[in-house]
């Protein structure tokens, strides 16, 4: 079975161009009619390539491969940076499927699909149902940035009442604050600038500290530290930046 759909690619001159992708639907793949897409900062690295852009997609399943049994036509689902995992290697079987030995990743293969499009073909191993009552436009960014910080918090055992430090309040950091706060953690934001203090507290932070003004004699120990910014500085320096 073949499907065709309109896509939007990067180009050598940096312009986004329209194109058509035609793909055969594999046994473990689904065809998704895309309704929403997030925009990730990493998308800019593909603007000057011919990769179909976007990897934070939400849409409706319209066609199923012959071996697909875990979802059905009409389901609303999301998909992200990982295109396929094997489910059988040691990492997959121990809950670390993002390190699958046979992983297929967006941008490394299958350059004719992405979420900046009217449809896509994705392996069912990396397609996730979106709960009823959750807006698609809110769900799309969680497929990448949200999943990134959730993996850190869940896999490394963050628990209610743990003190979770977060550096960087951008696409990753603001979601890390919200998710950790909802988990019952005491969120401690560390920043080089006072400009985002109000945002951090609004997102759920219990404390906000400027890195160069921390009193190390009284600062309470952190159980976890998430580095979510692009510039961390020297955290071991006397000034902490």
TrEMBL record:
It comes from Penicillium coprophilum. Keywords: Metal-binding, Oxidoreductase, Zinc. Residues 162-211 form the D-isomer specific 2-hydroxyacid dehydrogenase NAD-binding domain. Transmembrane segments: none annotated. One of its GO terms (molecular function) is oxidoreductase activity, acting on the CH-OH group of donors, NAD or NADP as acceptor. InterPro entries: ADH-like_N, ADH_Zn_CS, CAD-like, D-isomer_DH_NAD-bd, GroES-like_sf, NAD(P)-bd_dom_sf. SUPFAM superfamilies: GroES-like, NAD(P)-binding Rossmann-fold domains. This is Alcohol dehydrogenase N-terminal domain-containing protein. Pfam families: 2-Hacid_dh_C, ADH_N. The keyword tRNA processing does not apply. Residues 26-132 form the Alcohol dehydrogenase-like N-terminal domain.
């Amino acid at each position: 079975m073949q499907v065709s759909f309109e896509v939007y690619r990067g180009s050598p001159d940096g312009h986004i161009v329209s194109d058509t992708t035609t793909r055969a639907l594999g046994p473990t793949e689904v065809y998704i009619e895309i309704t929403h897409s997030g925009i990730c900062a990493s998308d800019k690295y593909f603007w000057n390539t011919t990769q179909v852009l976007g990897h934070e997609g939400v849409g409706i399943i319209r066609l199923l491969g012959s071996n697909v049994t875990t979802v059905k036509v009409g389901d609303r689902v999301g998909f992200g940076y990982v295109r396929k995992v094997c489910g059988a290697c040691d990492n997959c079987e121990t809950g670390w499927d993002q390190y699958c030995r046979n992983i297929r990743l967006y941008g490394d293969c299958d350059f004719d699909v992405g979420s900046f499009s009217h449809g896509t073909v994705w392996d069912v191993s990396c397609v996730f149902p979106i709960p009823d009552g959750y807006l698609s436009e809110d769900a799309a960014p969680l497929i990448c940035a949200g999943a990134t910080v959730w993996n850190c918090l869940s896999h490394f055992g963050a628990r209610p009442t743990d003190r979770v430090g977060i550096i960087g309040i951008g696409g990753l950091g603001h979601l890390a604050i919200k998710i950790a706060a909802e988990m019952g953690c005491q969120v401690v934001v560390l920043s080089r600038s006072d400009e985002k203090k109000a945002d951090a507290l609004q997102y759920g932070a219990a404390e906000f500290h400027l890195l160069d003004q921390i009193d190390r004699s009284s600062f309470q120990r952190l159980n976890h530290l998430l580095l979510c910014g692009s510039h961390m500085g020297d955290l071991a320096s006397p000034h902490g930046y």
